[in-house]
Amino acid sequence: MRVLLIEDDHVLGSAINDYIIAEGHGVDWMKRLDEAQLALDTTNYELILLDLGLPDGRGLDLLKSLRAADNQVPVIITTAQDQVAVRIEGLNSGADDYLVKPFDLGELNARLSAVARRYSQVAAPQITIADLSIDLSRKSLRKNSKAIILTSREWAVLTCLLRKRGAIVAKADIENSLYAFGAEVASNAVEVYVSRLRKKLGKDFITTIRSMGYQIE
Amino acid sequence: MRVLLIEDDHVLGSAINDYIIAEGHGVDWMKRLDEAQLALDTTNYELILLDLGLPDGRGLDLLKSLRAADNQVPVIITTAQDQVAVRIEGLNSGADDYLVKPFDLGELNARLSAVARRYSQVAAPQITIADLSIDLSRKSLRKNSKAIILTSREWAVLTCLLRKRGAIVAKADIENSLYAFGAEVASNAVEVYVSRLRKKLGKDFITTIRSMGYQIE
DNA sequence: GTGTTTGGTTCAGCATGGTGTCAGCTAAGC
DNA sequence: GCTTAGCTGACACCATGCTGAACCAAACAC
Fold it and tell me: What domains sit in chain A, N to C, each tagged with a CATH number?
């Protein structure tokens, strides 16, 4: 997850910065609003942590202009203990969440993952390859924006290949992901399903690497 | 918006209750978890306000089972000032937000509208598909502008499918949204309801994806 | 109380389409 | 050319899904 941190306090800022990195996310830390605006213009973030206590007090404007521009990126605002009114105004201006300073870093983390979870539901992991768009979680698939129905076995083969996209996947690997281990299938089932997939998705979508396996892209 | 309020404190509860009503929303106020579970079984809420400080301390279980059943209804938890750990666990268990008691009613309202805003983006109130027009929040349904009455179970199945419109919804998912946690039903109930829905709404409205689930559109 | 209606759940028998298998074919590599 | 690997149409079988009907429980009328 790529996070934009807008915070002028050096001590708190670097603590948060380090913490988010330790959680495995990427951070851009901006100490001034004009820098933040610039960063927003050039990069797509998945989360913004916005300090509303900045000296110039224009953090809310940034938030409002984001929402006015129909940018739905989740924003968590941070305020000092006594700024209840600011907090309310922030939420009404389109913030998704807030943290009251001083806050527990564990709490920050919980909020991060809550927002990340929420966000990941909205922005479906949509894969687009050539004229195909594939949504694995919804099991929906479109070719030239026309829906295509796959059977469950066909899905199994497709996801197995997509999970290792770019790599060459051995036929045995695919077979193992199809049939719970043990149940040996002495046949060319995988070949059959690849054939069926090609009929539905297009000839060149899955390439055969002779005597090694199959590959997508 | 229909809100389920779970709060055992009479004073605070009735204050919140009145406040939400004053804001133009509907509230069901439950003082015990078993009542709340019952309410959840029969009604679809758009927001749940859950007090994690209930005497039996099983509020978290309710929340977890909701999420386990893939119920995405926004949940705001309330905790006392000193229960930071509970709060964090709540967020990690799938709560969308929290309020620390004692909280400002203005703050409650800001959170309500924040959640409502977020929610309204997801579920459009009026849906039109083919010759059907469906209003989920009012539970009204028309086919060629002729009203159709559905039973509550039929609604549950329909809304479950519509909420993930376009996606393939597994039968188990639908079952989970029908029968809140615990109550295992060993039968083909979902099939029966789909069959009845098709009889009322038209043959082709819900499509079967064999061994995967059902799909609308 | 009885009778009726309404909706939920279960079951059985039937229909159907996905699955696995094979045979005959094509294409690749040498 | 030959050999081997992979492709694909055809098909039988049976798990999966459909649906009418029966059965219950709760609500309601009288």
Answer: 2-122 (3.40.50.2300), 126-216 (1.10.10.10)
